[in-house]
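Entry 14. Ran structure prediction on the chain below.
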Amino acid sequence: RVEHTVPVAYDTAWYRNRQRWGRYLKALDSKHLPGLPDSVARWVSVKSMLTLLGNWRAARGDLHHDGVIPSYSNPDFNGFWAWDSWKHAAALAQFAPKLARDQMRAMFDYQAADGMVPDCIYLDKANDNWRDSKPPLAVWAALRIYRATGDKAFLAEMYDKLVRYHRWWFKARDHDHNGVAEYGSTDGTTIAAKWESGMDNAARFDSITMLKNGDGAWSMNQESVDLNAYLYKEDLDLAQVASILGKARDHDLWLKEAAAMKASIQARMFDPKRGYFFDRKLGHDELVDIYGSEGWIPLWAGAASPAQARSVARVMLDPARFNTRMPFPTLAADDPRFSPIKGYWRGPVWLDQAYFGVEALRRYGDDRQADDMARRLVLNAEGLTQQAPIYENYDPLTGHGYQSPNFSWSAASYLLLLQQEAGSQGDHRR
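Output, structure tokens:
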């Protein structure tokens, strides 16, 4: 028996490979941060790119599109997670836009009839987690892809799916139907509700109870400020998408909904005495007065008034709270529950929240402080500018990395940090 094989054109294959990597690297040429040598910015950017590409997995089994896993160094991370996927896609748009689009498609392949997107999906769909979803950043990611590519067809493909996902939050996670949502779960458990926030053991959730909204729909007894700021940002972003697609009536509707959400966030979730945004307990005139990274998400989203933003910035820049050696821990350093090494969401620096913190300052005009914080996130992360992997989170007091190395959303956050989003400041300085 004679085996017939197709000869490999090695010269052509190597040429195409060099071309592909040349495109990847060229896309990172513009990485820059004031006060940071461009060589350092490029080093961190390339390391971040390599981390994401190293975690790239092809469509296989019940995963119908390519995507990026959280970390190849952790055997538990063998699927795609929704919150991770939105961040990965936003960063991948800069240098691998096809993969960015597929990362989003992979999650929306499993969108339920009611609009829900599951927490995570695996090679075997029997293992998918439908007990909860994850914070809504999908429209933000889709717009990042559009701005990088001009791919209007992708927005048209995604629009109805994004709308259904946005609407799902208010159908399944607004217990008192006041237009302000809560994190929750499909099975009524507190652990799944905490997972839905993405901040599994955050101190603000220590005293939650669950309230039933309907069949397979439960809410925490707590309106979370970050969730509603993300949803407000989605209203604004959906308005932009609608405008791009020529949907004038939708555009006006999203802006009207955004205005209502902004008013609720400012009135219900800001404490003028403490100068910070907090979660609010349902049924009580009571804020959950724990200083966490969720308190600056309204600034990132543009939902704060200028006066509120100034007050929040003072808290963010307080060395006793968030202005640590590596800035922006997820829980204030003066909180008795602060645990930067083993606390997970009780004190370590998570790079997505730190990136949002930098952009929060920048959005309201504090560019100097934003640049300083961004530089320290680069220079004070142990090993980041040397031969060491990018970690899942970092000790804000020492900069030492913890949890999983080669972590994708940390890498994605550094890529975003080194490329300020166009139009991020808007009119919020006025």
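The chain has a mean pLDDT of 95. Will compare against last week's run tomorrow.
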